[in-house]
Design goal:
18% of the residues lie in helices and 38% in strands. The longest helix has 10 residues. α1 links the parallel β1 and β2. It is an alpha/beta fold. The protein has a 5-stranded mixed sheet. The protein has a 5-stranded mixed sheet with strand order 4-5-8-10-9, with helices on one face. Strands 6-7 form a two-stranded antiparallel ribbon.
Length: 169
């Protein structure tokens, strides 16, 4: 299964994002979608799961839950927009981790690309950074990986181009 992680689009969608979402078996949007047109575009490419973020209004919140547990071929993943720092998650996230014992956590919000093991909670922490143009990040990013028999493999960081300039495919 080929999975693409995207977050913090903040109402931005361009051809470079669309190009890199292609070929996905599943797209996970980790919140701050912004405009429902972004979600509509993503859903045309591949099956999509999403959570809402702090900037998302009722149009996105009516389509996406606050958090979700996704089974990726036996690999249990918690998806939530605001999780906190690796090993120092916020109270809500710690409660969800304790209740569901995920193998990984996918979050957004910080606009900081991060993939690292969390030994304290025995899970893998993934944040795809930000794909949109709003924020302090310098490079727009997404993550891609494959899941086979509950194992994540072939993780790729995709750089979409600088936040401040128009990107091309």
């Amino acid at each position: 299964m080929k999975v693409t992680l995207i977050s913090d689009t903040h109402s931005h969608m361009d051809e470079r994002i669309i190009h890199h979402l292609g070929g996905s078996d599943l797209i996970i949007h980790a919140g701050d979608v912004g405009d429902s047109k972004v979600l509509d575009s993503i859903e045309k490419i591949a099956p999509t799961r999403c959570v809402y973020g702090n900037i998302d209004g009722t149009n996105i919140r009516s389509r996406c839950p606050e958090w979700e547990i996704i089974d990726l071929m036996g690999h249990k993943t918690l998806v939530i927009h605001i999780a906190g720092s690796v090993g120092r998650y916020n109270e809500n996230t710690r409660t969800l981790i304790a209740a569901h014992q995920p193998d990984s956590i996918i979050c957004g919000h910080s606009h900081i690309l991060k993939v690292m093991p969390d030994k304290k909670f025995n899970l893998l922490h993934l944040n795809p950074g930000a794909a949109g143009r709003h924020g302090f990040h310098k490079m727009r990013t997404i993550l891609k990986f494959e899941v086979d028999n509950a194992n994540m493999r072939n993780l790729q960081v995709i750089e979409l181009g600088p936040r401040s300039s128009q990107s091309v495919s």
